[in-house]
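Appendix B. One record, verbatim.
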Amino acid sequence: MADQPAQGTGTVVPWKPDGLAYGGDYNPEQWPREVWREDIALMKEAGVSLVTVGVFAWGLLEPDEGTYDFAWLDSVLGLLHGAGIAVDLATPTAAPPSWLLGKHPDILPVRADGTRLAPGSRLGWCASNPHWRTHSLRIVRALGERYGAHPAVRMWHVGNEYGNGNRLCHCAHSARAFRTWLAGRHGSLDAVNAAWGTAFWGHRYGAWEEIEPPRDAGMPGNPGLVLDFSRFSSDALLGQYEAERAVLRELSPDRHATTNFMVGAGPHVVDHAAWTPAVDVVSTDHYTMGADPHREQELAFSADRTRGLAGRRPWLLMEHAASAVSWQPRNLAKEPGEMALNSLAHVARGADGALFFQWRQSAAGSEQYHSAMVPHAGTRSRVWKEVRELGAALRALAPVAGTEVAPAGVALLVDDEAAWAWDAGPKPHQGLRITDVAREYHRALWRRNILTDVITPRTPLEGYEAVVVPALYLVGDETIRALEAYTHSGGRVLVTHLSGIVDPANRVRLGGYPGAFRDMLGVHVEEFRPLPDGVDGTLDTGWTYSRWTEHLHADGAEVIASYDGGPLGGLPAVTRNPVGEGEAWYVSADLGQEGVESLLRRFLAPTGVRPTARTPAGVEAVRRVSATGSYLFLLNHTGEEVTVEASGEDLVCGRSVGGRARLAARSYLVLEQAPGEGAAEPNGYDGPRGG
């Protein structure tokens, strides 16, 4: 991630006003002009400071090929600038206009079954299509030439949610580009055949032209081919982003550029870790799933992962929902106070702003029931009241802007390529999402208010007291070396089942699982033993397990827990192996939540890892820090009033809190403290749960 545009010419315009950014997607083209002035007045009332404009406006900006209408956008930017509201101006390439798709229907993506998508949605384009590239860069150039130095424009919003609808395209253009990509990655056809193991089923390739995208063949495709196609597709979309950004660098070198990721548990539609160096500001969209009983923790996981991508520096929440979304099976409204809790949970974990989709709820279109800052009910609504209150709170929290989240003692390794590899072909347990394993271990730490950095395997590990490797299915040699060096130098590593199974070509590492980590762990797995639904068991420690077990052998490692009864009765389940100055633990079973928490308590006991604060169950505690101050966020996700031991200056209400604070149901408190004030006691992992 760059600090400033690559050309570095002139003074770089700050990407946001002072303080924390607040606002959302603003789509004035959906409304008559008389509404625009009302919008500006309401934005000022709510404290809006940054809006995204023009995401889906291509068809209005260029109604016919080569004919532009910028008058309405000129007016909108003038109104916003006059009101002191900054603009994150979008390139409108998320929505190709109808005339373009009519002239070049081959721009539309092709599914694996060979059918071409019809017009009528968004992101209806293939990243490898030359017609698409030509026309998309032309509209970007037109925008850059007209608005590259506009005083309202603080940042460029390049595209929108790349891959969300066009992640994969199986057309002829994609096939040709895929072959070129493969030649660059592997160097020769022999190398491709070796990497993919094409001798199986006699699928050896004798010419590049024989290689096609993994289209529907009636049977599962080659896992190596499927994984490489996912990599290629992410790179193809990144190429489109970089091409648009390059035009803007030329025409608007003093403005930052970003695009909105969609960071969650994964697997993601693109490899965000590979994209991060191409953005000046890491930004993401996040929407909670109403049916998820652990949605507050899922939000924390997403924010911790975004912070990891941002290198622990501040990032931007580009989109989230004021209340209900419109695309889940049941679109549940947020409870009173939940919107502010969601927003401030992101801020607590590193966001320097909270933006929504969208400003005014649409009266028509595919997302007409997606909530917005100004709902269908208008200003006579609970949502609007909470929007105003949140704006006031974020203004009061201005001192938090630019600070960083306090250093985490624990790192959790997560990788999109590893999840793609697991999903690329048949597997021992078709119903097991390996991304769920990472969430389970993160949840155990989150419940105890143990701050965790969710990072890629390529992130340096120095400074962490412990590293958790949850179901990291694909592992490269550099990751093996990094973890071994970290452990030898005194680090503690905990590896779970389904880690280190395949190499970057998606080929199984032979000699017993987990092939990548056998030597470090001092164990080998003879056989996977996935369990049928409804079948579970217990270890001799009392920890329960389900879904997954393994026939594990301890090759010098100490046995911490064994299977109690059943076909694996008496065999090791959890082990510990001394490595240099550190230790490497292995967990062969899919433990229940209490087992994961008990295991982590034991694993972390010798370290200095401790909770951010001791809180009642359901109260999240996170700290942001600077050289001169500390800001403790306390978020009560429960439906009950609670009391928390804490002291400091309440930034939002402007009062002093001395020792004990009451938090109403679904409310929050942000305390400014002196550096070091309010730190938890060592070995606080055994304290009350945080949620």
